[in-house]
Specification:
Structural class: alpha+beta
Shape: elongated
Number of helices: 7
Helix content: 55-70%
Order of helices and strands: HHHHHHEEEH
Oligomer: single chain
Radius of gyration: 21 Å
Length: 182
């Protein structure tokens, strides 16, 4: 598993390449979070990898897989600390991986460029402007959803923090299940 290097993306000089790299990083991190959920699902069920894969990936989207992991965890532990942490993680995970999340937006919409005007000098009849890449989706009757470099960078940071939280909980859940089996 490769974790995208957000610092390297931040330091890129070409803003268009930087945006595409960050877009790829958010999609990749979304897949990594899905894989973390799979391992938690497998650990909770205590089944071999092939059977766990068949059960987990029978759910066609991350929402179904997230719900399956939730049910699996709740079926194997009654540890109040683990369940409280899981409930908190699950709520945040819904925001990160749900249909309104940035990963969904960048995965299903093209990157475009928009003109950003930073300064208008009426006396000189001049303005300072540049093109900036973004991803946007317009749905009739709703406000457009848009992701820019700064919003995607914050989103990717949240994905990385979620990865860490899931791994820590997975470790603690595994420890609790092993202790209970003894």
């Amino acid at each position: 598993m490769h974790i995208p290097d957000l610092r390297a993306i931040w330091e890129m000089e070409d803003s268009t390449l930087q945006f595409y790299a960050l877009t790829g990083a958010t999609v990749s991190l979304g897949a990594i979070l899905d894989e973390c959920l799979f391992w938690m699902f497998r650990d909770a069920l205590q089944k071999d990898k092939s059977l766990a894969e068949a059960l987990y990936y029978a759910h066609r989207n991350v929402g179904g897989r997230r719900d399956a992991t939730d049910a699996a965890i709740k079926s194997v532990t009654d540890d109040p600390e683990i369940l409280a942490r899981w409930a908190n993680i699950l709520a945040d995970l819904v925001l990160l991986t749900g249909g309104s999340g940035a990963r969904n937006l960048v995965s299903h919409n093209p990157v475009s460029e928009t003109m950003v005007i930073s300064e208008i000098d009426m006396e000189k009849k001049a303005m300072t402007a540049w093109l900036t890449p973004l991803v946007s989706q317009r749905t009739p009757g709703q406000r457009p959803k848009t992701e820019t470099f700064s919003t995607l960078l914050a989103y990717a940071g949240n994905q990385l923090r979620m990865f860490d939280r899931l791994n820590k909980l997975r470790f603690d859940l595994t420890q609790a299940l092993e202790a209970r089996a003894r």
